[in-house]
Amino acid sequence: MPTIHELPFDDASMRAWAGADPRATNWPVVYTLEGGSEVYVGETLNMRKRAEQHLKGERQHLQRAHVVVDETFHKSACLDLESFLIRLFSGDAARTVLNRNTGIVDADYYRRDEYQARFDTVFDELRSRGLFTRSIPEIRNSDLFKLSPFKALTVDQAAATADIVESLFHDLEAGVQSTSIVQGNPGTGKTIVAIYLMKLLADIAAADRDEEPTGESLFDDFFTAGHRELLGSARIGLVVPQQSLRASIRRVFSHTPNLDPSMVLSPFQVGHSEERFDVLVVDEAHRLSQRAAQAVGVQTRDFRLITERLFGEDDHARSQLDWIEARAEHRIVMLDELQAVRPSDLPAEVVGPLVERAAADGRVHRLATQMRVAAGTDYVAFVRDALAAEGDATVVRPDLGEYDLRFFENAAAMREAILQRDDEVGLSRMLAGYAWRWRSNKDRSAPDIEVDGLELQWNRTATEWIRSRTSREEVGSIHTVQGYDLNYAGVLIGRDVGWDAERRRVVFRREHYFDARGKANNNIRGIAYSDEDLRTFVLNIYAVLLTRGMLGTYVHVVDRDLREALRPSFAR
User: Fold this and answer.
1) Can you state the angle between helices 320-327 and 297-311, rounded to 10 degrees?
2) β-strand pairing of 64-69 with 104-105
3) Which of 188, 216, 231, 299 has its CA 20 to 30 A from that of 6?
4) Which of 432, 335, 330, 339 is nearest to 380 (CA)?
């Protein structure tokens, strides 16, 4: 079992330990250095030498060391434990994590499960010594953990990040503009890559000029004097269209060295900015808006004013993507066009050419590894295929392993099951399509959703609803959950979709769809949306809702005919 040595972080103490234990100079170890509200986590084969380097560098102010030693440790296990502790410290938020993002890939190795079981023991011991304030499940359920820039990347995420950064430095040096695109289904970690890139670029720009890279980590080669010079005065921002997700990421940035909440921007902030950006990373770019009526009148006015200022006229063909291209030399765009959920989102005629141009330059990177849903990539494809199936074809439910997909006859029974899961593992919520009026917006006591004897209300807050005090008792809409993870999602498929027995397909029912902006025609651009157009958006909404649950998804279909049509696919 691991042994944790605790000692003052000074030369005399480290020298004394090295004299008493040969593993201090020739054994793979993981260590933490702490001081006040700061912590640094590392791994090394020579703790004595590494301590000397830290004591001469930017970590010399730290005061105590905890060194984890195990007779069976090897390099892969140490890298894994280092990443594990960094992510938990970041999610705990009690201490500022001083590590930079040099890159660890979430790689498998021999008997990894056995090693990771011991990692929990290391955490428990460090927590007993006051280094952590919360349990592992509490930390893992926090947005600070889920949206942390300290991630062990999947192989495809790491490859995309390396290619994007290498190309970016080439373009910065050459003085040419560029657009790179990262594509991926829900749960493949596009937001993780966006946040990771922000931290990596900020760390390179702020790196200690006297500390040369070790060459041991994936992105160490980017930490050079030349790259620091290219990024030294660069203006970098992360554009997030959704208000709720933007607020959550700003909170993460406020706890992360070299990042700042002011770096997280709305598209309107980019458009209003007087200064150009060197690099803009755009998350959920499919949610950028085309020219259309906005949520509030002042934004509709601002859309016109920004377009006029940037392009000399109110060209209705211009979108928020055009603003970003006009205000930034380099754009890194996270995109999944199948997650567009409103007519005002970027249309196919904008997204298609964008991807084609980037692909022609070799700048499209595809993420395939499923990180959210425990059932894997097959589940996401299954959900989309089941909703879009036509004729007599039944979409065969794939082998989902331990993933808990359930089909409920009764909405009340589903809610009870979700509440039970929330009691057990937390972060389990009810979600629904926009098939019920928002009555409680005007009457706080009025029920919004009435089904199977249940009387429920929509989310009372639009910002960080999942963490809000009342979210357990409420129902979240697409606008509060897109971009977030749940442990379990209970999804109500409302009467905004039904079953056409003659054509044998899911159809959209406009009279039961109550998102006013979700079905509004674009009068500014003279576009009217047919039921078939809106069907695409609503099925995208349900596909997003049905892919929020990491451990399980519970489903109740309100329309009886549609319930029977979907039963062969969703029920066991």
Assistant:
1) 40
2) unpaired
3) 216
4) 339
Q: In what order do the strands lie in the sheet with 264-265?
A: 264-265, 236-239, 277-282, 328-335, 178-184, 364-367
Q: Report yes or no: 334 and 190 within 8 Å, Cβ to Cβ.
A: yes
Architecture of the domain whose range is 377-570? 3-Layer(aba) Sandwich (3.40)
Is residue 415 over pLDDT 90?
A: yes
pLDDT reported for residue 171: 96
Tokens standing for residue 15: 């020298």
Predicted pLDDT at 393: 65
Please give the backbone phi and psi of residue 66, each rounded to the nearest 5 degrees, phi first. Answer: -120, 120
Spatial distance between the Cα atoms of 46 and 44, rounded to a whole number of angstroms: 5
Question: Residue 149 carries which side chain, given as an amino acid letter?
Answer: P
**Domain assignments of the chain as residue spans, ordered by start:** 3-140, 152-367, 377-570
Q: What is the CATH number of domain 152-367?
A: 3.40.50.300
Beta strands in 232-372 (DSSP E): 236-239, 264-265, 277-282, 328-335, 364-367
Q: What is the DSSP letter of 133?
A: S
Residue 212 has pLDDT above 60, yes or no: no
pTM above 0.85, yes or no: yes
Q: Is the pLDDT of residue 313 over 60?
A: yes
Q: What percent of the chain has pLDDT over 70?
A: 98
Distance CA(333)–CA(168), nearest Å, equals 13
